[in-house]
Design a protein that fits this description.
Structural class: alpha/beta
Radius of gyration: 18 Å
Largest sheet: 8 strands, mixed
Bound molecules: adenosine monophosphate, manganese (II) ion
Shape: globular
Order of helices and strands: EHEHEEHHHHHEHEEEHEHE
Number of strands: 10
């Protein structure tokens, strides 16, 4: 079991716990080195860092940036970023700025499918209204009785081809990497096994092209162990990391008690062939 958890969310984005509560939970579950990686926002880092220092835990400043690459939405985690780096803050502001209008369109599309009032329902779940996203919609659709849990919402709604899906242009890959690197951070391609075309993974050829471009742009690590990967995918992406000379990262991608693929602090070790990303931290 690893005592590193380098990917998780607070209610600054789409988690359910405050940053201090996330740290508290990580500590009580044995995490020694924690990165908080909220989507497109770094506002939770100060609170989390001071909570971590009270427990004597190491804390890494993180963020998870939404990116559009070809027709795919990708998530790029930045580790060890400087949240005061102005181009990073300006970039994150620009990524967040489209979320309100997108959410309204998602709600309109659900209304066309006969499900009304979802924007008003979802915004109650968004502690940070600038960061309203699909998870908040999913929580409301569960509350309203359309699905039994958040995970099953994403089988019937909010994904391509289903009610509530709205295509969106996020950051450019090159920009997200340059904001992270410019701030002194390490760019990590998050949960590479989750990039699907319909029911299938993006395919070997596209993954090869993505990783080639990611490395050429300065990306340095691949998330090998994450809550949403299978054991086979740990091995698959450990090999990609080696092939592309990338460091390997690990994190639960925790969003809240009872809601995530995995709780914090309970991740298997990185495969032996991996070079852990923490070797790259100064
Ligand atoms: P957004 O940034 O608004 O597109 O929302 C993306 C978030 O939705 C992800 O970070 C996850 O928290 C959540 N999500 C997406 N797909 C799934 C899924 N299949 N199961 C559970 N949560 C998901
Ligand atoms: Mn999320
Ligand atoms: Mn993600
Ligand atoms: Mn995440």
């Amino acid at each position: 079991m690893l005592d590193y958890d380098l990917h998780c969310h607070s209610n600054i984005s789409d988690g359910t716990l405050t940053p201090a509560e996330v740290v508290d939970r990580a500590h009580s579950r044995g995490v020694k080195v924690l990165a908080l990686t909220d989507h497109d926002d770094t506002d939770g880092l100060d609170e989390a860092r001071s909570a971590a220092s009270q427990y004597g835990m190491s804390f890494i400043n993180g963020v998870e940036i939404s990116v559009t690459w070809r027709k795919h939405t990708l998530h790029i985690v930045g580790l060890n970023v400087d949240p005061n780096f102005a181009p990073l803050q300006q970039g994150l502001l620009s990524v967040r700025s489209g979320r309100g209008a997108r959410a309204q369109k998602m709600s309109d599309d659900l209304a066309r499918a006969g499900i009304n009032g979802v924007f008003q329902g979802a915004i109650k779940y968004a502690n940070n209204p600038n960061m309203i996203g699909r998870t908040h919609f999913a929580r409301y659709l569960v509350e309203a009785g359309y699905c039994k849990d958040v995970k099953s919402v994403f089988n019937r709604y909010l994904v391509i081809g289903k009610p509530g899906y709205v295509p969106h242009q996020w950051a450019e890959l090159k920009d997200a990497i340059s904001w992270i690197k410019g701030s002194g951070g390490i760019a990590v391609l998050a949960h590479p096994g989750r990039y699907m075309v319909g029911k299938h993974s993006m395919g070997k050829k596209t993954m090869f092209e993505l990783l080639s471009e990611f490395v050429a742009l300065g990306g340095q690590a691949l998330e090998v162990v994450t809550g949403s990967h299978t054991a086979e995918q740990y091995a698959e992406f450990a090999h990609y990391a080696r092939q592309f000379n990338l460091f390997a990262s690990c994190g639960s991608d925790f969003h809240g008690p009872g809601e995530s693929y995995r709780d914090m602090g309970r991740l298997p070790d990185l495969p032996m062939i991996c070079r852990p990303v923490w070797q790259a931290f100064q």
